[in-house]
Amino acid sequence: MLAEWVERLLSYASGALDAIRADESFPAFMQWAHSEGVNYSGGDEALAVALAPVLWSQTPLVRLDFARESLAPPGRNEPCWCDSGRKYKQCCDKVQLPAIPDHLMWMLSLREFKGEQLKAALASGLAPAQALLEAGLISAESGNRGRAQQIMEALFDTSDWSRLPEQAEPGFELLLDLYQERGFTRKKALLLDEVLERGPAFLRGVALEHQCLLHLDSDDLGSARAAFIRAQQTLPDSPTLAYIEAMLLLHEGQPEEAQDRARFWWRRLSKQKDIEPGQLEFLADLAENPRATLAEQMVNSDESLSDSLAALQALFEVIEHPPRLALETQEDGSLLFRQNAEQAVTLGLWEAVFPARIEEEAALALDIDPWDVQDPNEWLQQLCASPEWLDVPAVCQGLILALASRFGSLPWMSDTFFVPLAQRFDRWLDQIEQAGGLLRWEDGDNAQLLRCGLGLVIGMERGERERSRQLAERLLKLDEEDSLGLRELVLDQLLREGRNDEAVTLAEHDIERRAVDEEMPLLGILMGQVLALYRLGRDKDAEQALEIVREANSHLISLLVAEHPRPVSLAVEAPEPGTRGEAWQYRTLMRDQWKRSEGALAWLAKHR
Ligand SMILES: [Zn+2]
Predict the structure, then answer these.
(1) Are 400 and 514 part of one and the same domain?
(2) Neighbours of 565 (CB within 10 A)
């Protein structure tokens, strides 16, 4: 009964809106209600007429700058407002109308207004909050992301938070997602700041969570930790904290601490009475195994992909070792891998479903994002149905790159996707090492193997540091030219592990090698050398090395010592040498190590 009424009301209201928009005159609209309204009210003429003045009263009028021309209902013995000539009590007053939400016509108008008119309507500030919320959610659902963003921005107008309805949280999450999806990261950051400064308490939890995740996304662990501390002060009893802290500690490379803290949160929050059973269960799982719990959540977070990703995960649990490679030893003693005919056929099958191609010129890139295609399930499912494809290095490199691009920045995804593939890759690596000799990038199909390795190094870098570094070192031994740019990465890891002597040797070796080719040394290598020398107490050598850093990038030192410098937004491509962007990138990657080395930042500041 109610559903039928709602449907009838919506159909009538849309028709009425068109009629009102035609010339925004009440008499003309009443004429429409008498003559045509019945076509929209399911044949009920009395209803069509009785509804008209009610809906008119709540419709924003363009000629009044979006104000409404509200009519007061007539007295019982006065002439009816529908112009029938009868008394009100004998006319429209007799028609039973269930409740009509008073923001209905505004909500429908917001879906109809276009361009400048929509802008003006939103700017008028007259739209009821509930109308904005509903129109925004509906617009997003029907794929109209631009309109949805515009409407939601009016709802979360930061000049007045008091009119926001309590149920606005889904709208807030939607706006943040829209910003993220459409690349408005600055707007997103500003909105989050604003909510945290002045916004209503019921949005703060979501805001802090997003802020922390935003910092984690851009690898800014210091700011992420600051956001977490703030969250803890604002919402000491929020279950979200447990989840954020686990992610943060895993990003910081502290899995044991992550588990300890997850246990702490579970003990603490399980004593609360108002906690939901679903949340409690999640906290218990998190305390039991933070990585697996976060990984499971990740796999299930995108409903359209979760079945395929779970199938891939299951495949990785049972898949056996790959067959041996056919390797040749060349005249100069180096190794050559060439894809055979059978492997080429398999690659053809894979390429028929996998949409992206390897960029042959780059060490590690795909031409398009294989997850951003009509249906990524297609290639995932085909692969799961044909596990033998994974015996072919060229297929592995595509898959590893695809997985690294989507999950490589999430430390808790290492066990799920990268470690199993690394275990398989180890078999090939063992075989190559046993054969002895270098594996040059440019020979035959060697690049396929090196790319697999590099993809795995990157995929495991955050979740399995030790393993990632060991693999990188093994690859470097095979590929002395460092075609993959692994040396910088290995150096960073050595510094993290406090192996300073080895770090100095590696840096010196790289700088010398590049000097032979008259190449400029990489900033990360130069700074790694400085840090290692400083830690070893070799101040004079460190000062000398710093001299070269100053020449290579004049922004670096001041940016590194500053506590809160103005951030540099990084483009998709790697920043140019010598730029502020390059300096910023180094800062985000390694500042924590400088901070952890006693007196290092002060020493740097002195040598500015
Ligand atoms: Zn009437």
Answers:
(1) no
(2) 15
